[in-house]
Hints:
Elements: E1 3-5, H1 15-23, E2 26-32, H2 43-62, E3 67-72, H3 82-91, E4 101-108, H4 114-130, E5 133-137, H5 144-157, E6 166-169, H6 176-181, E7 185-189, H7 198-208, E8 213-216, H8 228-238, H9 243-258
Parallel strand pairs: 1-2, 2-3, 3-4, 4-5, 5-6, 6-7, 7-8
This protein binds zinc ion.
Amino acid sequence: MYYFDPHIHMVSRVTDDYETLAKMGCVGMSEPAFWAGFDRGSVDGFRDYFRQLTEFEPKRASWYRVQHYTWLCINAKEAENVSLSREVIAMIPEFLDRPGVLGIGEIGLNKNTKNEATVFCEHLDLAAKTDEQILIHTPHLEDKYQGTRMILDMLCDHSRINHSRVLVDHVEEHTIRAVLDEGFWAGMTLYPVSKCTPERAVDMIEMYGPERLLVNSAGDWGPSKPTAVPDFILAMRLRGHSESLIRRIVYENPLRFFSQSRNFEFTPPEVDQPASL
Ligand SMILES: [Zn+2]
């Protein structure tokens, strides 16, 4: 089955991963900007990173016929440096008209601090001003419930954010309902050691249905599995779900969400017609 991974950090993966993903049916992916493992020292460090995301990664993906898209921001871990964050936010528009740039992300909270909230809201202002879509990171484990609540409150308090153009990622059983109830899209991240397993993602599909739900691998530097979406496809089949329901979640839903971005141009893979006998 063809699928789309809506959240994966390919800068941290080797070229062999692109080949493996292509063999497993991945035809498209989107890569949000994130933390590099260290705090970057200047706005030029981000400018170079955004060039990597908009120039080199799409090229590397294309070697395996995978279509690569991206999101730009300064992530929550670096938001404690508010003055650098403001410089980055002011620089982002240089890249917003590049092919494959889908919007602002992954913004969000990490430790739910005041500075993180300030930088989050300034990203929202940029997205509203430039009419961009938004991809959101919700915090890990002990900070997740409170952080998700804070994020949803800031989104709902903003007068110019269209909820159907916002994807809130890393939802779990205790945060998914609040995200969907407000009209946002929700992403389940399949991680081997935290967040959500393929089986728990299937549970949530069974509870909430496929509307506005996505699954992703969030493959990155740490313990993560770039082929987690195929694991989810198998888990759905083993539970007896139809191919059309699976395709809706791993292929049609991402396309529906991303199609709201002006720079999203996707060429669907050719589908074989049965040979006539
Ligand atoms: Zn991420």
